[in-house]
Specification:
Largest sheet: 8 strands, antiparallel, barrel
Strand content: over 45%
Helix content: under 10%
Number of strands: 8
Structural class: mainly beta
Radius of gyration: 20 Å
Strand order of the largest sheet: 1-2-3-4-5-6-7-8
Mean pLDDT: 83
Length: 200
Amino acid sequence: MTFSVKAKSKVSPLSRLCRRSVLAAALLAGTALAAPAAQAEPAAERAAPVPDLVCRLDAEVSFSPPLSVRVKEAKVTGHIGYLDCRSPSGAAPELTDIVFGVEGTGRFGVFPPTFSVEGNGVGTWNTGEVGSLYFKGDLKQGSPVPERTVTSGPLAGDVINGLQIPTPRFDKITPDGVAGFDVIGQVCFWPGEKGRCTAF
């Protein structure tokens, strides 16, 4: 392999600021712990909603090319796994796990620094039934999972919420580029009104 040496070019203050923005955003997503927002207590006589499923979240999304100040939109591929599920409502006790293969678009916003994803996924439940979902939202630690809706298969029409902890993966070739995120957390499937997933 032959390496060529280029003359060192001056880096403008704006370029330095933008480069710091993408690094700050990734570090914020991976290390800044946001406290859950306080929620008003419902009326005593009103029953709290109960989810159809509560699952452990284990996901991985990759950006191609890595997102950075130079690349603000990229293809997203990866998987979203819902594992060790249980059914508090009793609506689907037979459903225990599914892994969706996902594709979509990843975006980086400089001001304020933000990573977001949007796309669709298809997977197979442990029962052999096929399901699909739509997802959209930001990747921030301690924040709600990106908006998700079951679009077909078991529990079609259910909406999904929960809490996520994403960890950024930096690109090895371009240190200021983010190649993707590993995400863990907890999610709930709701047939109608959504409640607090952390309560289950």
